[in-house]
Every structure is written in C-alpha cells, then in structure tokens.
Write a structure and sequence with these properties.
heterodimer, A: about 210 residues, mainly alpha, 2 domains, about 60% helix, B: eight-stranded parallel β-sheet, disordered C terminus
Chain lengths: ~210, ~280
C-alpha cells in the first residue's frame, strides 16, 4: 500500500476539493491536522473502498493526511491516536506502516491490543506489527481467535506463527472442547498447519 | 415501534439493558455527559469519561445493533468545583468528533454564579461549533430554574430551535411551550414523569417538538419506559404515526441539526466483527 494508491482510490469521494485543500493545508500548517483529521469522515465518507480491499474511505483519507505531514510523524500520530475517537484511532493504526517512523509507535499497538474493541485489535495486526515483539504478537493473535476476529486481518500470519503460538492455540482448543464450544475454523486450520505445538519451532523467537 | 432514546446514560447500564432495549425497538440513543454519582476531582478523569463516550460505549452499543451518539459538556453540578472547571478548555477537541451531536448536559443545578458562567460559556461553544444544546433543568426550585434557563438561552443568541430543554413536567412545560425550544420529558418509575402523565401532556400540547426519554442512569430508572410511553399513547388513541413522531422523528430532527447523526445501515451489524468481544470476552 502506498499513499499514491490511496489517493487514486479517493478520487470519487463526494467532496474531493475538501480533501485536496486539507492535504495542502497539513503540508504547510501541520498544527491544523487535529481538526481536519476529526472532520475527514464527515467530509469524505465512511464506506468501504472497492480497492484497496479492506480499507474504508475515512481510513484512507486520514492516512493521507498523516503521510502528508512535513515532519514529526510519530509524535503527531501518537497525539491523534490518544485524542481520537475509535475511528480516528483505527485510521492511525492503519497509517503506521506508511509513515517514516521506524518502531517508534509500537506503544500504540500495545494500547490497541489491550482494548476489547475488535476493530482496534484487528487494525493493530497489519504490516506495522512487524515491529511488535513476538510474545505480544502471539497474544494478540490469540485474542483475535478468542474474540472472533478473522485471522485474515493478521499480516504475515504464516510467516510468523511459531510453535509457542501453536501450543497456545492448542490449549484454547482444549478448553473450548471441554466446554462443548467450537473453535473458529480459521484458527483450527492454522493449528493444523502448525502441528499441535509439541514441536516448538524457532521461527523468529523473541 | 422504532425508538430513539434522546437521553440515556448507557455507561451506567449493563449489556442486559442493551439486549432488552434492542428487543423493545430501541435502535438509536444519545448519551449525554453527566454527573457520575461520585464527584470527580480532576480533569483527567473527564478525559477518560469523554473518551469512553466516543470510543468504547458506541462499540458496546453496536454489538446489540444500537447506534450510539453522545453530547459532551461540563455538567452543572461539577461546574461548581474549581478542580473540574478546566474541563471547559478540553471541550473544543471533543466537539469536533463525529459522534458528538450536541453540547450537553448544560444548565442549572443550584443556580450559582459558577453555573451561570459555565452555562453561558458552553452555549457559546455550541454556537461556535454549530451544534445544538441539551439543557438540563434543576430538580429543586425547578420553575424558577426553567425561567432563568430560558433567559440565559435568549441572551446567548443561540437559535431556540437548536435547544432542547429537558426534564420538564406539568408545571414547567408551559414556560417552554411558548418558545421555539424543543421539550424533553424524562419518564421515570416514580419521580419526574410517568407514561400516563406524559400521555396527558401530549394530549394537551400535541406532539410537535416533544421528546420522550428514559434518562436511565445509575439511579432508579428503566430504559424501557420510552416503549411503555409509546404503548400508553396507542392505548389512549394516538396513532402509530404520532408515536413514531415522538419516539423517532422528533429526536432525529433535533439532533440531526448537528449534521452528524449517522443512522445508515441500522438494520445491519454496526461493527465489522459484531457480536463478539463482549459476548465472549467476559466469559
């Protein structure tokens, strides 16, 4: 995903002049971003974008506002997240992998994963989660299974899933089985791909 | 019967309430920021409270197919505490948010000079942010409180049609009926208003600009009394269209003035992964 792709995808928003003006504004007046960020969904919309799949209009517009800043991306992303409503927080999380910030915003992932808002947990497990340490990443994946978030939202799931995650999933499956409750099909399939957890792998151990 | 509860404190209610409300026809609510029973002692605790009104609570409501909006303000009671007054400086940030459809609850508790200042200041904020205002009227010395409320509203310059004066009753209704303000009535199990009394007021004053809410909170209250009032209206001979006007179209019209009311796709699931984190997360 690149800002150019998002920009192209947003050509059809109801009020493209607003978005153009907002992007020009943040490039020269970064202090304007909190209000523009809050307004973006009302001005651009909230529906799903046909392409790229998995993105909504407001997430894409807010991501462009963040990528359009001249500097201080990490500090601004953090402030917008801390002061944002749930949709703004989600947009910040989606934007993180597109910002020149290294691992600076990992604390935002920790915050999102602690919540019980499944939309935030899902958004925290995109490409930026490559900076998330392995124990936290495993628990976040397990939380997805526990709360019914489809594992398709997890970036690089098979590349990163390891024996320890398999053991955790197997334990959850045993609990669910004892309780007469089902595991989500995508979790069972992952467990099958990983084996039963009795042969820990060393893939990217933290 | 589709119901929009224009004043309910869901933070103080359980998920059982959401289930029962949804089953009774409640599809949308507005949750005004208010006093939590325990006085607060710092600004930071308001930040967490306001954040929950635009974060966790809408998500929780969405699990049950209920659309949640909020109003944000420093409430009259806590406007008297100097430790809480800097909350006024926080408000502009929240008044920009999508889910915030009015400034409120503002108004009077004990009619002190501090309440005067907070009330007038927050009406000005409503004007500046192009938002309606939800005005609480006091429990004690109510009639004089309403008179003073209307005087402050007139002085503020806000369009009366963008003001909802709440918690009215047989005594105070007349004062507000003569203005262009909207009239709110809180139906309670014992105090404030009851469904039969509300029906009488609707007979006398008609359904125009009349809003009925449960104002359910941490006290003795019942989130289904909106529905009970609708049923009492039908029994008394009001039409289904009358009920729909009072319980749905009037609140939609009033809060719709914010330009931020989002009632799209209400039949469908509100969250991407509806029905999970609360239903399973607590088990």
């Amino acid at each position: 995903m690149t800002p150019d792709q998002l920009r192209a995808a947003l050509r059809g928003v109801p009020d493209p002049q607003w978005l153009d003006a907002a992007l020009r504004r943040v490039a020269t007046d970064p202090a304007a971003i909190p209000r523009l960020f809050a307004l973006a969904a009302r001005r651009c919309g909230r529906g799903p974008l046909p392409d790229p799949p998995g993105w909504t209009v407001d997430e894409a517009a807010r991501t462009l506002l963040l990528t359009g800043l001249p500097a201080d991306h990490a500090a601004t992303a953090e402030a917008l997240y801390r002061h944002g409503d749930a949709a703004e927080k989600r947009a910040v999380l989606r934007a993180l992998p597109l910002l020149p910030i290294g691992a600076e915003c990992v604390p935002l992932l920790h915050d999102a994963i602690r919540t019980n808002d499944t939309r935030l947990v899902a958004a925290a497990l995109g490409p930026y989660a490559r900076h998330l340490e392995q124990p936290a990443w495993r628990h976040a994946v397990l939380k997805c299974v526990f709360t019914g978030v489809p594992l398709a939202v997890v970036d690089d799931l098979d590349g990163r899933a390891d024996g320890e995650l398999a053991a955790m999933l197997a334990a959850l499956a045993a609990e669910r089985h004892a309780a007469g409750r089902a595991m989500p099909a995508d979790a069972t399939a992952l467990l099958d791909r990983l084996g039963d957890g009795s042969h820990p792998t060393t893939a990217r151990e933290a | 019967m589709r119901i929009f509860d224009p004043h309910i404190h869901m933070t103080s209610r359980t998920t059982d309430d959401y289930e029962r409300m949804a089953a009774a026809g409640v599809r949308a609510v507005v949750e005004p920021a208010f006093w939590l029973g325990q006085p607060r002692t710092s600004v930071d605790t308001f930040v967490d409270y306001f954040d929950s009104l635009i974060g966790w609570e809408p998500f929780r409501a969405g699990q049950f197919g209920v659309r949640h909006h909020a109003t944000v303000a420093l409430n009259p009671k806590e406007a008297n505490d100097p430790r809480c007054r800097p909350v006024l400086d926080l408000l502009p940030r929240y008044l920009d948010k999508d889910g915030v459809v009015a400034v409120g609850e503002i108004g009077y508790d004990s009619m002190t000079p501090a309440e005067d200042a907070a009330f007038a200041g927050q009406l000005a904020l409503a004007v500046a942010h192009d938002l309606p205002a939800l005005v609480h009227t006091p429990h004690r010395d109510k009639a004089r409180g309403v008179e003073r409320t209307l005087a402050v509203v007139a002085e503020s310059g806000i369009d009366h049609g963008r003001v909802l004066v709440d918690h009215l009753n047989e005594v105070t209704v007349k004062l507000v009926r003569d203005t262009r303000c909207w009239l709110g009535f809180s139906i309670y199990p014992e105090t404030k208003m009851s469904p039969p009394r509300m029906v009488e007021l609707l007979r006398t004053y008609g359904t125009e600009r009349m809003l009925v809410n449960s104002a359910a909170d941490w006290g003795r209250s019942d989130p289904l009394l909106t529905r009970a009032t609708g049923e009492a209206m039908l029994l008394a001979g009001f039409t289904e269209d009358d009920v729909d006007r009072v319980l749905w179209r009037n609140p939609v019209e009033f809060y719709g003035q914010s330009g931020r009311l989002d009632l799209t796709d209400l039949e469908g699931a509100a969250a991407t992964f509806a029905g999970n984190s609360i239903l399973r997360g607590g088990e």
